[in-house]
Design brief:
Layout lengths: L1 E4 L4 E6 L4 E5 L2 E5 L4 E4 L5 E4 L1 H7 E3 L17
Antiparallel strand pairs: 1-2, 1-7, 2-5, 3-4, 5-6
Length: 76
């Protein structure tokens, strides 16, 4: 799914069901169950807890996203 932050930032995000580790160019990202794995444009991946995600992002219609979104999955 695609989400937009309260700031003008469009990201791709998935909620993680099981703990996982994702290797990225920036290093290994550790994600706990219930956290969100978020990909900004430029392929930067990070995890954030559910309460921060809920305060910061709102879901948008991905068909309306045109700026810098290439439709690739976020690596999980």
């Amino acid at each position: 799914m695609v989400y937009r932050s309260i700031r003008p930032l469009v990201v791709e995000a998935v909620r993680v069901e099981e703990p996982m580790e994702v290797d990225t160019p920036q290093g290994r990202v550790h994600v706990k169950r219930g956290e969100w794995l978020v990909r900004e444009s430029g392929s930067t991946l990070f995890s954030c807890d559910a309460s921060y995600f809920a305060r910061t992002f709102e879901q948008i219609d991905s068909r309306k996203v045109t700026d810098d979104y290439d439709g690739k999955p976020c690596g999980c």
